[in-house]
Design brief:
Number of helices: 3
Number of domains: 2
CATH superfamily of the largest domain: Nucleoside Triphosphate Pyrophosphohydrolase
Distance between the termini: 49 Å
CATH topology of the largest domain: Nucleoside Triphosphate Pyrophosphohydrolase
Shape: elongated
Length: 184
Amino acid sequence: MEETLKTLAKINAKHFSAQLDTVRLRTGRITERIKIDHPEAAAVVPFLDAQRILMVRQWRYAIAKETLEIPAGKVDPKEDVEVCAHRELIEETGHSAARLLPLFQYYPAIGYSNEIIRIYAASGLLRVSEREDVDEISQVEIVKLAEVQDLILQGVIQDGKTVIGISIFLARQQRGEIPLDFFA
């Protein structure tokens, strides 16, 4: 257990807050820790059929490059995480889903953030609108599932939620844990 001794600095932004604290470790040594309070997020592996998924190209400021990833976003205050998953899918791809299957949840940066990402698989996709999130998403792409695995192994796809979402889906499918009617 670590004891917070003093907050040295704090920043509050629209969607998160961060603070730098002085803490005492269990050994008695004094050090600093950063903590980011971040809202929960939802991510979706959206299947057009058993072989193809929708992916989005998005500029990521922190790494200064465009990435290829699955749709995702922050849960709004008082919003249910599954509602967020449906909303983000529509906003980023223009598609709604008839079925949403919980796959996995994880902490992407457990050393300094309390963010949790809940990943879903979606099927029964229906185009319902033009994508709304033109500020963040530059392109929606249809990618073969077998190619996504290769893109991950080649290092083209490096986004954690995408790697985890695809890997968990395939592992659960191989174990027979994906309902047979998921793609129906």
